[in-house]
Amino acid sequence: MLLRTGGLKSLRVLAKNVDAGNVEQFLVDDRNWVIRYIVIDLKENYKQTRKLLSPLAVHILSPDVLQVNVSIEQLENSPDIDTAESVSRQMEEMLHAYYSWPCYWLYPDGYNLLGGALYPGLSVPFTYPAAGWGDECVEIQPLETHMENTPSSSHLRLTKEMIGYRLVAADGEIGQMVEIFIDDKKWRLKYLVIDTGNFFPGRKVLIPIELVKGIEWMNGAISVNVNKGTILEGPSYNQAFPVTSEYESRISGYYYPEKRR
Questions:
Q1: Could you give the C-alpha distances from 228 to 164, 167, 195, 216, 237, in angstroms and in order?
Q2: Whether residues 76 and 175 fall in one domain
Q3: Which DSSP state fits 246?
Q4: 46 in Cβ contact with 63 (< 8 Å)
Q5: Domain boundary among 134, 157, 180
Q6: pTM over the 0.85 mark
Q7: Splitting the chain (261 residues) into consecutive groups of 10 residues, what average pLDDT does each group show?
Q8: Which domain holds residue 217?
Q9: Cα first-last separation, the chain
Q10: CATH number where 254 lies
């Protein structure tokens, strides 16, 4: 199933069958576009509180409900993390220690791109090669000392931050990103929804995340390695119709014609 960031407000969160609020957005790793955390808009004593959950906590996902394998009490008592600031490694360590989650940053580089395949529907997880090898993920240093060095190097980005970014093709600007599709099996960004705007009014297209060659976070620009003509002539997207496997095959066949051979 594909998740639309534009439809997240209708995705309710059930913490062991107790209504816990809604999914607000995601924190994505900008090195491989993997969803590291789900941002929960938690209902807590009539005040708005945001909490983070790893996809490891997902039990069942349906079109309108996300069931997680933690209790409402666990959610309420979990570390408070301000998503308005960069999420440092120290903050992640606190969160993973609280839930006893394994630490994806200790796995070998490139191992399945998902922190050791420890995500729903994937293969057997990586195991630490020796006792104590992963202990450092819960060895928490003083917060003040650690935060002086880590936030600027954080690779975690909020999906809402990317909405509205300009799309820059190999030969110039072509529109702006208005939405993101997420693969809930791999928990990874899959498509960017691009409104071609002044170049082709009223037309939207889906760009596979693999075509992105870089993002200028300070300038709000996404660069892709195809030209404007290729994007404009690609399969159009209409939100009124679901993204079916047949439509995805059209996108794949258009941008990666070698796969059709």
A1: 18, 10, 13, 19, 16
A2: no
A3: H
A4: no
A5: 157
A6: no
A7: 82 91 91 89 74 92 92 92 83 92 73 47 46 45 36 76 94 94 89 90 92 91 94 92 93 82 46
A8: 163-260
A9: 26
A10: 3.90.50.10
